[in-house]
Predict the structure.
Amino acid sequence: MTPATRSPTLDVARLREQFPVLAREMKPGVPLVYLDSTATSQKPLAVIEAMDLFYRRHNANIHRGVYQLAEEATAQFEAARARVAAFIGAAEPAEIIFTRNTTESINLVMRTWAQANLAAGDLILLTEMEHHSNIVPWQMLAAEKGVQLEFVPVSDDGLLVLPVYEKLLERRPKLVAVGHMSNVLGTINPVAEMSRQAHAAGAVVLVDGAQSVPHMKVNVRELGADFLAFSSHKMCGPTGIGILYGRRELLEKMPPFLGGGDMIRRVRLHEFSTNEIPHKFEAGTPAIAEVIGLGAAIGFLEAAGMDAIHAHEQDLIAYTLDRLSEVPGVRVYGPAPALRGGVASFVMQAAHPHDVAQILDADGVAVRAGHHCAMPLHERYGLMATTRASFYLYNTREEVDRLVAAVQKVNDIFA
Amino acid sequence: MDDLYREQIIDHYKNPRMKGTLDPHDISYEDDNPLCGDRLRIDVRLGADGRVSEAAFSGQGCAISMASADLLTESIIGKSLEDVRAIGKAEILEMLGIELSPVRLKCALLSLKVLKAGAYGLAEVHDLD
């Protein structure tokens, strides 16, 4: 075993105590090594308790209630919205729309802004490394309206081929929709520079921040994002909550998304007028307790420090790539540690990714195997599947050692 | 779970007896599972008596799906198509000699689905899940 994890600013041992599930043994003497935070993160006590407290003490439907309980619920819900806005540097809470997940946030932009603003022949730029949730909605729009899709290619070492991007911008796309960080390669894309270039070409920029917002400081104004989509459940918050940030100017001109309660100002039998933003896009009762849980998650992340979290994960990924390079027959995809977050997708000569994941599971090491909702990216590398280990603030170098030992075991079993 | 990768399964995965294709063939069917990337083709030749005289599989996939394909194709030699129809989930698991989670059960049953879809049509395979 290597010496205890050193991190200049994260007290990982203390952080781990805040996550009850991390104390689990998957069988006697085999502690859980959770390396699937890219799929969903674990939840700290602060989040679990905030939701519990809401249901025990404050539960009521939000907005319009004139009794004290409803006012408390509304105040807590809107305070969480303000916290999200501050967390990503939005100009005001009204620019934060709550959805169900990143996927729904992107679909909302497709169904409202894109439906209203794009026409046949208009171009949308995506990249080969997008998650399906930032590909399929645009394919649906292409089928409905005849818009065109082009994809910025990915290099062998997992980076966007930016000269091709610049060339594609000459065709004056209406929208550039790009992931900030790849959920397979870990690549952190130069989105601020890409946004600047896209705006110069007259495009609107949507950033899929599902993998970046939980793991590093993201500021929408520094990024130049017109839209930013991300999910609560990947950032220590509960499932069921997605976030869409949009610039006020764009949101105000967009048609509503779903119709129903809360999104209206006035309804008559044959017509309605819409509420102001963000409520215009939030029809029906939202996941109130979950939004409050998300607020607690942001408090938790801010206390740990986003820069410290990012530095910790970069240390872990550098260590992981180093250690995995010792194991014969392992190939890890993606760029050098300095250009990526804490994601390591790999294949083994000896065994199929599912067999690898299963053997790791026998040692309590939880990783994911498959295409990770990025089939086009896997196809780009001639792969059907990879095994993926991913990290968060609670992971340690000791856990990486457990991963590497289990990977070596795969070679032993299939030798 | 530890004994999932028993010697028998690793052996059939690494040293398959029945791997290949048959041309000509009386039955040939190919299917894939895009979720995990497994792809499998099974070819069968029938003798004059209508029984399986030769069988082969090709494709790629995890150890469970490949070992299962090898064991299944080996086991049907000499059987009538009526005998083959009677093979079910229980018989495959018995051949593999392991217990499987619902996710990995799909890997184990891919070969049976491909064989039955080829022999009797897709309608036969719906009840295999």
User: Anything to note?
Assistant: Residues 12-42+305-413 of chain A form a domain with the Aspartate Aminotransferase, domain 1 fold (CATH 3.90.1150.10). The two ends of chain A are 25 Å apart (CA to CA).
